[in-house]
Structure formats: structure tokens, C-alpha cells
Amino acid sequence: MFPTGALLTWSLLTVAVIPASLGEMYTSLLNVKQAISVERKLIDYLRTYIDHESQRLDDIKRFYAKVSDLHTEVYRGPATAMANPLVAFTLIKRMHSEWLNVVYSNEAQENAQALRSGYEEEEGDLPKLEDLQGAAKGLMRLQDVYALQVASLVRGRFQRVTNGNFIDVYLPAVSVPLSGDDCFLVGKVAYEQEDYYHSVQWLEESVRLFRGTGGGWSPENEGTLEDALDHLAFSHFKTGNVSHALSLSQELLHYDPLNGRVLQNVEKYEKLLVSSPPKSIRDELSRPTSTHLRTRDTYEMLCRTQGSQQPLQFENPGLFCDYFTNGNPQLLLLPARREVLSLQPYVVLYHNFITDKEAEDIKRTSHPGLKRSVVAAGEKQATAEYRISKSAWLKGSSHSTVGKLDNKISMLTGLNVKHPYGEHLQVVNYGIGGHYEPHFDHATSPSSPVFKLKTGNRVATFMIYLSSVEAGGSTAFIYANFSVPVVENAAIFWWNLHRNGQGDADTLHAGCPVLIGDKWVANKWIHEHGQEFQHGCSLNPEE
């Protein structure tokens, strides 16, 4: 009775033109940027096609003009004109072969095939269906975490409502409005997940924009006004807003009056409204619940504020900034600029830890090895929606800069970071709305892959910011109730375990979604073993 048939048709069409391989472009902004060069090639192919088609049409126009002129100037003239054997011959020849050649010319097909062949050459580097869906989910994630208004996103603005007023969260240097078809796709992704909270908002914008264009169809569009009305009506029905579902279905019948399924829906909606009074539940729409994110409200608030939720957090007299040498003579002439951010958990930010050149060396070296980031899943590892990024592992031998960073980390922390006491450097690039929801770096299960090195648990984390971002991307410590914005070339350090070897629950942290920017970080995880003389156990078993 509802638009499942339309969904099936769309899905079958998509499968026919999109390769079956899984897409991961959306999980790394590096890959998204690389797609620009692919589209430039497609533009060149299209330009060639247009030129060839223009030439073909010019030839047809020339033939049309030639024949029209003959009918105007020759065949309407004296009857003796047809007595001319040359005139008669050219007429017979034209009617026999020239019209045939024009009407049945293969040139149009050849031009179209050349365009298709060019497209197929680049097809392996094109986004897959998973990329399209992942990018749409990324927009909805940003909408939720940063409380962005869909109506503003559609206009290319990043705004939230505060005290009834639209406030700019960020003013981008480049603003791109969305089309009705863009909004339809985002809403349809939510619809297919039975997420009617988001589908209603995005499909309403889609309908509004399609109406604004008169409901006209464009060849590049996947959806139409009728499609948007169909999906929006059912979304409202599923949220209990039957009166709105009826109104939209009736509007749809103006465009498709013989649609039996929609006619049945209208009849059903009318009966439902007779049996119970109409109501609008827009204010009651609620976001889908998360099965694993129990700290969502705190997490999102920390992401939005990029600072402590406790007013006195940074007025703590125990927090300070200094020039730090850790008693290491190699740091005497160039001490680190240390900022103590938190005492429990102990979190430190080292400013200017890495140079621009070193950061670029690390990023460039990681490019060939970037793969979809994974999370622990029992004894194995798997990709997850709550971690959207790509990562690569760099050994000390992969580039001289990696060894230099290991040495500097060791000097600042006093810890043994050589493999296997320290894991190889993990380089991470975040994707569209890229994030990593609240998690612990240390293993919380004895079956965790962390223990495969047989050097104990992760006692400490040293994370280097290899880039800046314009908005979003903070590191939020959930239970400690503060967040740290991305500071380019800085590094953040914290202990994951107490002195007694137990995990520190206050280190629950998250990588907030990147709103605007290209976020790169490098993680160095240091294990318990090998630190016996650098970071020993306490005599107090409770410490």
C-alpha cells in the first residue's frame, strides 16, 4: 500500500549502473578530494560530447536549410525547373539516400557511446552506493550533534536555533545550496532505515524545493516531486500525522490520478481520521535511539561547546602552563610548551609538538596504506558506523620523521615507545561528518585485540594533531566533562590506566564529528610492559 514498490524500482536501477564493490570514499576526506580530479576528466568527456553533438546538429541544420531553400526558391518556381534533369536527379538522390543518411545516422549513438566509454574508464574511481548513503548519514550526523537546522543546511548555512533566533555555528568560505533532489536522497536514506524523524525533515525541504521549480524534471535528478510527496506522506503516516499524510497523498493524485496504491492510502487515511481526531505530532518527533551510545547528550553538548561544561574547570589552581623538559637534557635548549588541561584524568596538551613539514611527511607517507578504520569486536576487528575514518600504520622505518617523533614522545613522557612496547604510529584521516563516538583506548575485555602484542594493556595515549579544522572535530572527555578543540601541530597525552593497572573510566573520550575541515591525527599507544622502570606500580593498590 505504501511506496515500497517505488523503492524497489529505484534500488534495482541503482544496482544496474553502480558496481557491486563496497565504497569507502566517504570515510576519508583525502579520497573525497581525489574525486575532484576524476570529475574533471568526466567534464572533459562531456565537453567533447557537446562539441561533437553541436557539430552534428550544425550539419543537420545545414541540411535542413539546404532543403528548405530548394522548396522556397526552386520547387515553387516555374514548372520548367523540374524539367531540368540536374534538378530532378538531385531530388531523387536526396530522397533516396540523403534523408536516409540523416535519419538513420549512427553519429548520435557514436557520440553517446564515446561519452559512456569515457565514463566507464573512470567508473572504478567513482563513488559507490555506500558512499552516497554514507555521505547522507554524515549530513544527518552533523545535523544532530551540532543541532543544525535542515532549512539552513539546504541554503548552504550552518545554523542552530538559540532562544528563537537563528545563530550561525560557522560561516563557510564556500557555500553550496542543496537541490530538491539532494534533499530527496538524504531523506530517502533515512526513510529506508525507518528513521522517520530525519526523513520528514529532509523530504519536506525536498517537496518545497521541487514545488518551487514547478515540479519539472531534470535529466540528472534521481527523484521527482511525485517521489518526494510519496515518501513524505508515508513518513508522516508512520509518525502518526495522518492528516498531513492524507493532504500530501491527495496532492500526489493531481500528478498521478490513477495510482491505485495512493488511492488505497487516501481511503485508509480518511477512515483513520474518522475513527480518531486528527493531530499533528511534529513537536513529538524524536530521534532514533542509539543502542551503544548511552552518553549522547553529554557527548553532543561537549562537541558543540568545545570547552568545559563545568564553569570552574579551567579556574582550577592545579592547572597551569609551563616550559617542560621532563628532566631530559635534550629538551633543555628547546623545552616543550606544556598546558595541563585536567588533573583527573591527567590530560596534557603540548603545543607546537610537530612542524608543518613533519606533519606533511607523515600524512603523505600514510596515503598508500589508508584503509577503513576498525573497532574491536570481540577477538576480531570490524568497521562500525560509530567510527568514520581511514587509518594507516607507519613503522619507524617507513620514514625518518616517524622515528624522530617516537624519540620526542619518549623524551616528553619518559616512556619506552619502541615496538612492541609502543604500537606503530596510527595515522587517521576523517571523512564526511567523520567521528569516533565515546570509547576507551585501553582494552576493557581480556579477549581484545590490544593484547595480541603480549605487552599488556594500553597504559597511555599520545595523539598528534596533524592538521587544523575550521569547525568541529574536538576531542571530548565525557565523564571528565570537558573537550579540547583541534590545535594544529599540537599533541595531547593522557594516562589510560591507574597505577594499579585498572582502566581509568574518566578517560572515556570521543572524536567529535568534523563540521568543516580536513582532520588528520596520529596516535601512539603505549603499553604497560617495558615501562617497569619508567612508570612503575604504586604501593597503594587503590591508586
What would the keywords be for this entry?
19 strands, four-stranded antiparallel beta sheet, elongated, 14 helices, 42% helix, 543 residues, alpha+beta
Brief characterization of the structure:
The protein has helices at 4-17, 29-74, 85-103, 107-122, 129-145, 150-154, 180-192, 196-212, 225-238, 242-255, 260-275, 296-305, 356-366, 400-413; strands at residues 158-162, 165-170, 321-324, 336-343, 346-351, 371-372, 375-377, 380-382, 389-394, 425-430, 436-439, 458-465, 469-472, 475-477, 482-484, 491-495, 509-511, 514-517, 520-527.
Structure description:
- The protein is an alpha+beta fold.
- 42% of the residues lie in helices and 17% in strands.
- It is built from 14 helices and 19 strands.
- The chain has helices at 4-17, 29-74, 85-103, 107-122, 129-145, 150-154, 180-192, 196-212, 225-238, 242-255, 260-275, 296-305, 356-366, 400-413, and strands spanning 158-162, 165-170, 321-324, 336-343, 346-351, 371-372, 375-377, 380-382, 389-394, 425-430, 436-439, 458-465, 469-472, 475-477, 482-484, 491-495, 509-511, 514-517, 520-527.
- The protein has a 9-stranded antiparallel sheet, covered by helices on one side. The chain has a 4-stranded antiparallel sheet with strand order 11-17-14-15, covered by helices on one side. Strands 1-2 form a two-stranded antiparallel sheet.
- A hairpin with a 2-residue loop joins β4 (336-343) and β5.
